[in-house]
Design brief:
By secondary structure, the chain is α/β, with parallel strands linked by helices. The protein contains nine helices and seven strands; from the N terminus they run ααβαβαβαβββαβααα.
């Protein structure tokens, strides 16, 4: 449950009107209809770059599986995207898959090596979690075995693969553009709008922990 009074207190006392209006404007283009999942991506800058693509193209949730490699965010590459995109971390791939399926996402694996749908053929009507794998080995057998579908980017050159952050950017841009041009109900719910509005407001305020503690001690 979102504390509306607390949200209004923060917005009134710590945000300018232009900042508040900008949050509302950006949130109108956010979606959880699609989400991105990354499995044990070794190179740190790739995770940060994918997060930045999620932010730029309006995908609100990023899932990171850290079974093999510890992760932190490269703030220079993320360019502040970590403030505006929710990062959900999982210690194992099965936990991530189970969590996403429980939210009614279909699992979509990205791979150039089987009978995948070409990107432009991908059905955008279903809630989908798009999985990206390691730079060298791709996705694990666990993901491939449990995937509900597969997609690949059309390529006409000699090289058979793209850097993961490039692949993610191409796919995210394509599916979100088509989504916004469709009649699908892709926008955030009222509850989601309030939740992210509060999170973004808190992320914008210095010493928010102290301010929040002081507020609730008064009321």
């Amino acid at each position: 449950m979102i504390d509306i009074d607390f949200l209004e207190y923060l917005e009134t006392n710590f945000l300018t009107e232009s900042r508040k209006s900008r949050f509302l404007e950006v949130l109108q283009n956010r979606t959880t209809h699609f989400t991105i999942a990354m499995e044990d991506v070794y190179q740190l800058h790739n995770t940060s770059a994918v997060m930045r693509s999620c932010e730029v193209f309006g995908v609100q949730e990023l899932h990171v599986v850290e079974q093999k490699f510890g992760k932190r965010i490269d703030t220079e590459i993320a360019m502040g995207a970590q403030k505006w995109v929710n990062i959900n971390r999982f210690a194992g791939i099965q936990d991530a898959i189970d969590n996403l399926k429980a939210q009614d996402y279909q699992i979509i694996a990205t791979t150039p090596h089987n009978d995948s749908f070409m990107l432009h053929e991908f059905d955008i009507s279903k809630r989908s979690a798009i999985f990206f794998g390691t730079e060298k080995e791709g996705l694990s057998e666990e993901v491939m075995a449990q995937a509900d579908g597969f997609i690949k980017i059309p390529m006409v050159g000699f090289t058979e693969s793209l850097n993961i952050s490039v692949s993610a950017a191409i796919i995210i841009q394509d599916i979100t553009t088509r989504l916004r041009q469709s009649k699908i109900n892709w926008k955030l719910s009222e509850e989601e709008l309030l939740y992210y509005r509060l999170q973004w407001t808190k992320n914008s305020i210095k010493d928010i922990d102290f301010i929040e503690k002081r507020y609730y001690n008064k009321v």
